[in-house]
Each structure stands twice: as structure tokens, then as C-alpha cells.
Specification:
By secondary structure, this protein is an alpha/beta fold. It has helices at about 20-30, 40-55, 60-80, 80-90, 95-125, 130-145, 170-195, 200-215, 240, 245-260, 280-290, 385, 410-425, 470-475, 480-505, and strands at about 220-235, 265, 295-300, 305-315, 320-325, 365, 370-375, 395-400, 430-435, 440, 445-450, 455-465. The protein has 2 domains: about 5-215 and about 475-505, no CATH class; about 220-475, Carbon-nitrogen hydrolase (Nitrilase/N-carbamoyl-D-aminoacid amidohydrolase, 4-Layer Sandwich). It starts with 19 loop residues before the first helix and ends with a helix.
Length: about 500
């Protein structure tokens, strides 16, 4: 497949479906169908191949950057439209302001594919293999940057679309989500740049076959006996959660669920009890721990001042022995005020929006024979932070409150992210959420059970701990980033040498 010549390339056309800008926006938008809930995992790869074809045909690097930006707008405006829901429907921000804030946020996210387009078009050569490696390496580095700059937002990183049954899911335990995304980008490059090349098809088959073989690897081993866990979903509307008059009903909901579904460990979601932990009545703790240990999400007042978003493990007994975890990766604007943005909270109603961050490293909680590593809400987006609790932790538990995002794509997308964390760590991931999707995930990424969203109930599962380390748990993102850098350096070397010769000849 040969790219369109620059002479015939135009950002405007009488036929919208042949206009590069229109095609870029369309490709970005349809890519979202590759993620949950549809999970059409080949689609983002095919759409990315289309974008790469447009980039190769672009007459200048700037035009390629513009196409990448347009693709990003189509992708993020479709995929993270739930930002508007959280700001307007739940947060109470005026609709025009919420719409503008959502668009501006998506414009920021669209900068990253724009950068990939610019540098790919500027550094590409006539060599298929160099171009393929250049594209895959740049894509990995851009997604990693998006995941770390300004506390990071790696939502909808390409690798998350490749959960099982995608063969590429097998690489998650080795290279993590960014590495899986890089391999998906490499396949997209093979499709866009080498459709008629035998080597390109051999590359695709090798990657898919290797991934399928890796999916059969047992990187970790079970430890301890299985035990019953009850994951509670209270389905408390966010608009009522912090209303003082609603507090007795919230407590009654969770204590009733805990008593009706006995288990060795009962898990309540993020800030399930809208109180500071020291304010929780003793009789409530007695009711929650009637059948065993409980892990409850609640705010915790600090002795030195301030408060944290916590997960408290409470053991039954006369003294209610406790262990605690404090959320360390806070959500900007949702859990703390970035410098210079205090005015934002005059436009939106967000209770408890000034949390303190917990320590970077915290010991797993000892519950029975297991070592449990809690994570709260979108902390499970950051794989390299989750593995800090390994190898000590034998079980991962996520406590979330996605009521902020209403009935949107956020809930199934968040569940898909949790599946990648299970694959990366070789451990079960249990999720207790306020409105959904409460779920149990096996170490191989399979969803063992869920509760329907926006229902009140308890998901009871047989959990088991795992010990050992996957390659990703040992290396984190280091191996993937090193490979991406080497790929870009190798691919860009001819262009850099040519530029250097031209400068010397002047």
C-alpha cells in the first residue's frame, strides 16, 4: 500500500469521507469500541494502522501532528465523555462550563498522539522495519508520558484494549500494559506499512503466537487455603451520600449486607461510611465484623492535621484491632486542589476534596494467612505503583466509588484496567464498588464474577492468595521503556545522520 502523494493530499475535500481530517477523527472515535464494554480488540489496531497511513501521506510533520491531534480528539471525546457526567450531572457544574472543561481536558490528552505524528513524519525513512519500530517506540513513550505528567492519566492506553481473549494479553506479565500497547502499535505498523510484505505478516503471526503461548504460563503459585470474601455494593447515589440525614440508611445498607452474606473477609467500597473512622459507632463495627474481618473504605483524620482517603482492616474482638492503608495517588480536582485552582471548587460541588496523600510505600495488610494490598479508586491505573507491594502481597483489593461517573463508559473501562493489573502481577484482583462494577478477577485476567451495576448486593467469591513474581513485577516499566528508546534511536539514526551532514555542509 503506497501513501497518497503530497500533491493530492488535502485537509479539505468535497467528500467528507475522503478528507484526512474527517478520517482521523472517525478512526479515533471508532477505536473506543475496542475497549470495554464492547472489547472488539482488533479494532484499535486496525484504526491505528489507518492513522499511520494518513501520517505517512502527510506532506509535512506539522500536518501529521494536526491529524494526530484530531484523532486524539475523536478518541478521547468519545472514550472519556464521562468527565462531563462527573462535572455536570454529579458535580453540579453548569452545562456550558462542564462541556468546555471536558473539551479542554481532551485537547490536552490529544497533544500526545499529535507529538507521535509529528516526530514519526519527521524521522521516517524508506525502510519498513525502521518505520515500524519508530512508530511503536514513539507510541509507547507518548503513552508513558501521558501516564506520568501532572500526576498522570493513562486511561485508555492502547494496551488496555488487549485483555483476554486477545493473544497479546500474554505479554502483560512480561512487559505490562505499555508494552502490550507497543506490540499492538507494532502490528498496526505492519498492517499500514507492509501489507504486501511477507516479513510483516511473519512479524504479526510471531507476536500473536508468542502472546498465545505466554498466556499459558503460570508465573505465580497459589499460597494458603481458599477463603470466602464478600464484596459489598451499596449503590448509594452520590448526590445523597454526604447528606447527614442519609447516614443511617447508608449504615443500615452495609451492615445488613454484611450480616446477610457471611464471609471470612467482608469488603466495603471507597468511603462507604461517610464518616471519619474515629466517628464510626462501636455497634456498627460489631455488626460489620460479626462473621470475620472487614476492610472498609472511610476517611481517616490525621493526628498532625488533615485527613486521608483510607482503607481500614478491622478484626473482630473486644478491641477491634485495626490496620490501615492511605491512598497515595490522589485525583487532581477530585481529592486535592492543584496550586492556583482554588477557584475551581466554587463551580462544582465536591465533598471531601482536600485529602492528604499517604506514604509512597506501605506494608500490605495482614488478614488471616494472606497479605492484602489495597488500592483505592483509580490508583489501579498505575501498574508500577501496584507492584510496590510485591512480592509480600498475595492478594489485590480495589475499593472504588464510580458513582461520580453515572451510567457511563467509566465503569466497564475501569474493570478492564483492573484485569490488566491482575495479569501484570499474577494475583487475584477483587473490586468492591459503590455502584459498580463489583467483580472478582483471576490472575489470568478472567472475570470470575460480577454484580450488575446500580444494584444493591454482595458478590461472594472463593479467593486465594498467590506468591511469586512475574517479570513485570520484577522490572516494572523499565524494560518496555528501554526497548522503546532503543527502537526510536535505531529508527531515527539515518534521519539524524542526514541532518547532521546537511548542517556540516552549510
Amino acid at each position: 500500500m503506497l501513501p497518497q502523494s503530497p500533491a493530492n493530499y488535502s485537509m479539505s475535500s468535497r467528500k467528507p469521507w475522503s478528507d484526512p481530517g474527517f478520517l482521523a477523527a472517525l478512526l479515533g472515535s471508532v477505536s473506543v469500541a475496542g475497549f470495554a464494554p464492547l472489547e472488539l480488540f482488533p479494532l484499535p489496531i486496525i484504526a491505528l494502522a489507518g492513522l499511520l497511513y494518513l501520517w505517512q501521506a502527510a506532506p509535512t510533520p506539522r500536518r501529521a501532528a494536526l491529524l494526530g491531534f484530531i484523532w486524539g480528539l475523536g478518541f478521547f471525546l468519545t472514550g472519556v465523555s464521562w468527565v462531563y457526567v462527573s462535572l455536570h450531572d454529579v458535580g453540579g457544574m453548569a452545562a456550558p462550563l462542564a462541556a468546555v472543561a471536558t473539551v479542554l481536558f481532551c485537547c490536552w490528552l490529544a497533544v500526545f498522539p499529535a507529538l507521535v505524528g509529528y516526530f514519526f513524519r519527521r524521522l521516517m525513512s524508506a525502510n519498513f522495519w525502521r518505520n515500524a519500530l519508530l512508530f511503536a517506540g514513539l507510541w509507547v513513550l507518548s503513552e508513558w508520558l501521558r501516564g506520568v505528567l501532572f500526576t498522570g492519566f493513562p486511561w485508555l492506553a492502547l494496551g488496555y484494549s488487549q485483555t483476554p481473549p486477545s493473544p497479546l494479553a500474554g505479554f502483560a506479565a512480561v512487559l505490562g500494559s505499555y508494552g502490550v500497547g507497543g506490540l499492538a502499535a507494532l502490528i498496526a505498523a505492519a498492517l499500514a506499512l507492509g501489507l504486501r510484505r511477507r516479513g510483516a505478516w511473519l512479524l504479526i503471526l510471531a507476536l500473536l503466537g508468542s502472546g498465545a503461548l505466554l498466556r499459558g504460563m503460570d508465573w505465580t503459585q497459589p499460597v494458603g487455603a481458599p477463603f470466602r470474601v464478600s464484596l459489598l455494593q451499596g449503590n448509594i447515589p452520590q448526590s445523597l451520600k454526604w447528606v447527614p440525614e442519609r447516614l443511617p440508611l447508608s449504615i443500615e445498607t452495609y451492615t445488613g449486607l454484611a450480616q446477610a452474606h457471611p464471609a471470612a473477609l467482608t469488603v466495603l467500597p471507597e468511603t462507604a461510611l461517610p464518616l471519619f473512622f474515629h466517628e464510626v459507632p462501636r455497634e456498627v463495627l460489631q455488626a460489620l465484623t460479626q462473621h470475620g474481618d472487614v476492610l472498609v473504605g472511610t476517611a481517616v483524620r490525621l493526628r498532625e492535621g488533615g485527613y486521608v482517603n483510607g482503607a481500614i482492616a478491622v478484626s473482630p474482638g473486644p478491641t477491634f484491632a485495626t490496620q490501615s492503608y492511605a491512598k497515595k495517588h490522589l485525583v487532581p480536582f477530585g481529592e486535592y486542589v492543584p496550586p492556583g485552582f482554588a477557584w475551581f471548587f466554587g463551580l462544582v460541588n465536591i465533598p471531601m476534596s482536600d485529602f492528604s496523600a499517604g506514604p509512597v510505600r506501605q506494608a500490605p495488610l495482614k488478614i488471616g494467612a494472606q497479605r492484602i494490598a489495597p488500592n483505592i479508586c483509580y490508583e489501579d491505573l498505575f501498574g508500577e505503583e501496584i507492584i510496590r507491594a510485591l512480592p509480600e502481597a498475595t492478594l489485590l483489593i480495589n475499593l472504588s466509588n464510580t458513582a461520580w461517573f453515572g451510567d457511563s463508559l467509566a465503569q466497564p473501562q475501569h474493570l478492564q484496567i483492573a484485569r490488566l493489573r491482575a495479569l501484570e502481577t499474577g494475583r487475584m484482583m477483587l473490586r468492591a464498588t459503590n455502584t459498580g462494577i463489583t467483580a472478582a478477577i483471576a490472575p489470568d485476567g478472567r472475570v470470575l464474577g460480577t454484580l450488575p451495576p446500580f444494584t444493591t448486593g454482595a458478590l461472594q467469591v472463593e479467593a486465594i492468595g498467590y506468591q511469586g513474581l512475574t517479570p513485570y513485577a520484577r522490572w516494572g516499566n523499565l524494560l518496555t521503556l528501554l526497548l522503546a528508546l532503543l527502537a526510536v534511536m535505531y529508527a531515527a539514526l539515518p534521519a539524524l545522520m542526514k541532518a547532521l551532514r546537511q548542517r556540516r555542509s552549510r
